[in-house]
Design goal:
Layout lengths: L12 H7 L2 E2 L18 E6 L6 H17 L3 E7 L5 H14 L3 E4 L4 H13 L3 E5 L8 E4 L3 H16 L3 E7 L5 H17 L3 E8 L4 H14 L3 E6 L4 H11 L7 E4 L3 H10 L5 E3 L2 H16 L9 E2 L5 E2 L2 E2 L4 E4 L4 E3 L10
Parallel strand pairs: 2-3, 2-4, 4-5, 5-6, 6-15, 7-8, 7-9, 9-10
Antiparallel strand pairs: 1-3, 11-16, 12-13, 14-15
Helix pairs in contact: 2-10, 3-4, 5-6, 7-8
Length: 344
């Protein structure tokens, strides 16, 4: 079985040069067709929120793994913006429409902003699914994790570290990012239910910028001298906030709880600045997204009926208010006891 091609559509090349979008290019589909042969491979365009950060590099590992397994069944296009902006994602969607790919799989930065372009893709006969960040237009959402369970785990971790009565803050990516909004609601719901003494004093946006998250964490600590904990709920924000606490000499006095890849936070777990972090396996998420896109293209996605996803086994879509969804896994908690078991 030959290795599949990880391709960037020809129509996107000019945008890559102009906007700094990142992708990997071998060749491009012929204009007007998702592949050069009607019986050829399925063209799957996977659009992350941003490229160039460790988290999405881990997702890309899983994408490539699945593409290699599937061989000539698929041509996978990995292409995302260099900044977490919906406008850049819209341009990529337009390029994929022009290339007439078979499936677009997007981690939406802003579901409302990308909806018109996704609707245009759907009207053109392109199958649409979302992953990581949900979208308002899609046939399937490949959900990372149940947002209520994730938010609850984060809130429980915070209460365990700061106690039941404390001021806390949240550093998110953007208020419009659907997964971030859902996780924040999950945190708030769990606090209201089980930890009513935790008081959220502020919520700030850091994009996916670790340096900005570092600055914001310091600003929060200066502005709210009674704050005892910071929820840093992006993979860039958690190491940024941990670095801020460490540099201020406040390790053990201010807890930082959130999600990130183990390689990005290992030093802070080892030093004790972070007691824990909550995530899932992003490599598996990329892998599952490719298999889900192929199942969608082959009309194998149906509520209540399972489809096969390689080494991850079977998944059975459930109905939601938009269409259907599947969930990758329950929360995975990293601690000093297990973080060295993971390398991504």
């Amino acid at each position: 079985m030959k290795q599949p091609r990880i391709r960037l559509a020809a129509a996107a090349l000019a945008v890559v040069a102009a906007l700094g979008l990142a992708g990997c290019s071998v060749d491009a589909p012929a204009p007007g067709g998702g592949s050069t042969d009607d019986a050829g491979p399925i063209d799957i365009a996977i659009i992350p929120k941003i490229v160039g950060i460790p988290y999405y590099s881990a997702v890309e590992q899983g994408v490539k793994e699945a593409a290699a397994e599937l061989g000539d069944e698929v041509n996978v296009i990995w292409n995302g913006p260099s900044t977490a902006e919906a406008s850049a994602q819209v341009q990529i969607i337009q390029d994929m429409i022009n290339a007439d790919v078979d499936v677009i799989a997007i981690a939406a930065n802003d579901p409302a902003a990308v909806a018109p372009a996704l609707q245009q893709a759907a009207d053109a006969g392109i199958r649409v699914l979302s992953w990581d960040g949900d979208a308002d237009v899609r046939e399937l959402f490949v959900q990372l994790i149940d947002p209520d369970a994730f938010g609850a785990e984060l809130a429980d971790q915070m209460a365990e570290q700061v106690g039941e009565d404390a001021d806390v803050a949240i550093i998110t990516s953007t208020l419009t990012a659907p997964n971030q909004a859902a996780w924040t609601k999950g945190i708030e719901a769990r606090i209201a239910e089980a930890h009513p003494g935790l008081n959220i004093v502020t919520t700030t946006e850091s994009g996916e910028d670790q340096a900005l998250a570092n600055t914001q964490a310091k600003d929060i600590i200066n502005a709210y001298p009674d704050v005892k904990g910071i929820f840093a709920i992006t993979t860039a924000a958690l190491p940024g906030a941990a670095q801020a606490v460490e540099s201020l000499g406040l390790a053990g006095e201010i807890a930082v709880v959130g999600n990130s890849t183990p390689n990005a936070i290992r030093e802070y777990i080892t030093s004790g600045v972070l007691k824990s972090a909550v995530l899932w396996n992003p490599v598996d998420h990329g892998y599952l997204t490719v298999y889900s896109a192929l199942a969608l293209a082959n009309d194998e996605v149906e509520v209540g009926a399972s489809f096969e996803a390689g080494r991850l086994g079977d998944y059975t879509p459930e109905a939601d208010d938009v269409s259907a969804f599947i969930t990758l896994s329950p929360p995975l908690v990293f601690t000093a006891d297990n973080i060295d078991d993971y390398d991504f």
